[in-house]
Amino acid sequence: MSSRSEMLYVRLTPEERKQIEDKMAQLGILNMSAYIRKMALDGYCIWLDLSAVREMTNQISRIGNNLNQVAKRVNETGSIYQDDIKDLQREFDEIIAAEKAILTSLASVK
């Protein structure tokens, strides 16, 4: 049994209801009661799109794998190829660019 025994009724225009439903959809929230309760109590709901963070994590994993391959080759042959260094630098630059994009995006969250 729910401990929530109090009811609160709110009248909306069809347009207002549509706006609420649109905001819920943007956040991936399916329960209108939970959404309205959260907004009334806290004033905001935040949904973070972490796809850029996941992509950066994948890039870091790839550069780690490539670095391990280069280290193995250096240990086996005693030499390193200029192309390997360029590839690692390019991948590192991509990670830095992704990080800057993520930080810029997070800075705009209010």
Structure in words:
With 110 residues, this protein is mostly helical. The chain folds into two domains: 47 residues, no CATH class; 57 residues. 71% of the residues lie in helices and 0% in strands. The longest helix is centred in the middle third of the chain and has 27 residues. It is rod-shaped and about 75 Å long.
Concise description?
The chain has 110 residues and is an all-alpha fold. 71% of the residues lie in helices and 0% in strands.
The count of domains is 2
Note the overall shape.
rod-shaped
Got a strand count?
A: 0
Broad structural category: mainly alpha
Reported for the largest beta sheet, the result is: none
Oligomer state equals single chain
Terminal-residue CA separation: 37 Å
- On the 0 to 100 scale, the average pLDDT is 86
Helix content: over 70%
Instruction: Give me the number of helical elements.
Output: 4
Strand % is: under 5%
Residue runs with pLDDT of under 50 for 5 or more positions: none
Instruction: Write down the Rg.
Output: 24 Å
SSE string, helices as H and strands as E? HHHH
Features:
110 residues, 4 helices
Topology diagram in text:
Layout: H1 14-27, H2 32-42, H3 51-77, H4 82-107
